[in-house]
Every structure is written in C-alpha cells, then in structure tokens.
Amino acid sequence: MLTSLVSFIIVLGVLIFVHELGHFLVAKKSGVGVLKFSLGFGPKLFGIKRGETEYLISAFPLGGYVKMVGDDPSEELSEEDRAKAFNHKSVGKRTAIVFAGPFANFLLAWLIFTIILAIGLAIPIPRVDSALPNINTVLEGSPAEEAGIKGGDRVRSIDGVNVDTWDEMTKIVRKSPDKKLHFVIERDGKMVETDVTPKAKPDDKEPIGQIGVSSQALVGAVLKADNVLMSPIIGVQAVWEWCGVIVESVKKLVTAEVSAKNIGGPVLIAQQAGAQAKEGVLPLIMFMAVISVNLGILNLLPIPVLDGGHLFFFMIEALIGKPLDIKHREIAQQIGLVLLLALMVFAFYNDIMRLFTQR
Question: Which of 144, 176, 188, 265 gets the most CB atoms within 10 Å of its CB?
Fold first, then answer.
C-alpha cells in the first residue's frame, strides 16, 4: 500500500509538474504575466514568491494550474497589466501557451522512450482488442471445440451475465470446473448459443475450469533501436504509436466496442504504479511515459475546461475573427465541467468496484 501511494505521488507529481511547466515557460516567453504556478488544487500547503509569480503546493494533488494575468475575461486590468495579459495576446500566442501543456507531456514520454531504447530495451505497443473477449485460437479436442466455438468468435454473455472483457470471461470459466455454462457468442454479426463445460485442471488450492481458448496477442508491435543514434527517431515513433493506441481506445469506448468498465481513476493508477515500482525503476518510468502520453491526448479532447476545449474556442475565434461571446463560453465550460466531474465519479466508481471484486 505504501509503495503504491509513494509511486502514485511521484508519477502524478512529475506529470503535473511537466504539464504545467509547459504552459508556464511558453507564457513567459510570450510576454504573459504568471501570478501562480501550483501543483495541486485547493488550499495552499506551501508557497514561495519569486518576482510576480507565487509557486505553490496545494492540498489536492489530482492536477495543477498556472494562473496568468488576464486569463479571466471579466477581470478589470490596468494599462500595465493589459500589456502582459493572456486574453490580450494574439490567437497564435494563446494557442501556443495552451498547447504547450499537452506537448510537454508528449516530450516527457519521448525523452523516457529514447532513454529506454538507448540502453537496448524495447518499447511494446499493445493491441486494444486484446482486452475484449474475442476468441483467437481454439485448441483441438478442447471443450470449446466440442461446443462449436471458433476463432474470431466474440463472447457476449455466459449464463445470462454480460461479458465485456477477456478477464471477466476467464474469471467465470475458472470458477466453473465441470459445470455446464451457456455461452452467447457473436459470429459474423449473428448471435450463436452453445453450452460449454470447462474441464477441471488441478491448481494449488482447488481445481479451476478451462475451455481451451486463447485471446489475441497482448502486444501488436515491439519497437527497438538498432543503435543509440536511432533511439530519438524510434522514440518519436513510440510516442506516435502509443498515441494511436490511446485514441483508438477512446474511440472504442465512445462506440461501446470496449466496455466503460475499463476506465480507471486515481486508485487504478496508484495500483499500477505500485505494481510497476515493485518490478523496478525502469518499469515505473515506462509506466510514467505511457500515462504522460495518455494525459497529453486526454487534455487535447475538445471538452471545455480542458486544454482541447480552449484550443477549440481559439480555432473558432480564428475563423470568425473575434472571440466567442463570453456567455456562450461560460455555458460551454459549465457543461464541460459537469462532463468531466461525471467522468471522474465514474472512474472512482470503477476503481472501488475493482477493489471489491479483487477480494
């Protein structure tokens, strides 16, 4: 538990710092005044002021922020502040400042991937479909073959219980040695029903059930650098490939091809960070790189209150030649905030359910 907590704080702290540092550096370079640079939200735990900027560590570590002069459109500004106000800079400069956060996360991932490749290790690129209950191969003479199950089938339910992931399917099968199970399978767009009796296999404590099927390979590709000089180039490819995995995952979640049960929150990240930390420093750093790519992609989604939402507003402003009406922006941000909070609550719910089902 302590390992998970410490690893979680390290991973999240680094990712938040890098993201906000991207905003901060480009804002300063663009001549925008920065009033606060905070790791975390809520009440201040610790702060130090240097120049016009107060650097803070705040109570709630699930994020951070950079408060700039003029980032509130309703704020009254003096002539001196107007010259360094965010909302008085060009669309191009504001776009660069906002995009710098996600870009910094991609840059961190690239740096980590490059180091991993440079020391001779490989970067695995997973298959999104590997989490689904899709049958890849069926063993000859197995209970699955006897029941007529074929490669390419997708398990939809077992004994009336919907099955959304490969893990859900295997848990039911493992707990049912020598017990007849009623499978509903999707094959070529049609539903097929069949009964399968898992064969009992001796285990340490008690027999477990097996039906003789395998899933698709977890890894779709493995990237390696032939030499140190190629590491930065393959590192760019690794970031790009991981972006594709995450975008495809989001797409499949939206289209319900992948179950929303796969969405995780802070508890899942802490568990995974702890597990990687136990494996060693390199697995933890690799995990950090993947989460950094994830954070970069999710922040670019066109949802108000996220960086992508602001970039979407700037794109509209560039097209119509003026900012959107403030009332419309406020309504959009309120809707975005509700959606984001709903997603966070759902992620927490999934985390809690995982904790209960793991016991």
Answer: 144
Q: Which mean pLDDT values do the consecutive 10-residue runs of the chain (359 residues) have?
A: 72 90 95 92 90 91 86 77 88 95 96 95 81 88 94 93 87 93 94 94 85 81 91 96 85 68 55 64 87 90 86 90 74 67 60 52
Q: How far apart are CA 240 and CA 230, in angstroms?
A: 16
* Active-site entry in 20, 54, 80, 241: 20
- Do 269 and 358 lie in a common domain? yes
Query: In this structure, what DSSP letter does residue 157 have?
Result: E
Residue 298 lies in a domain: yes
Give, as one character, the DSSP assignment of residue 86.
G
Domain count for the chain: 2
Residue 295 belongs to domain spanning: 98-115+224-359
CA dihedral sign of residues 342, 343, 348, 350: positive
Could you give the count of Cα atoms lying within 13 Å of 215 in the half-sphere of its Cβ?
A: 19
Catalytic residue check, 168: no
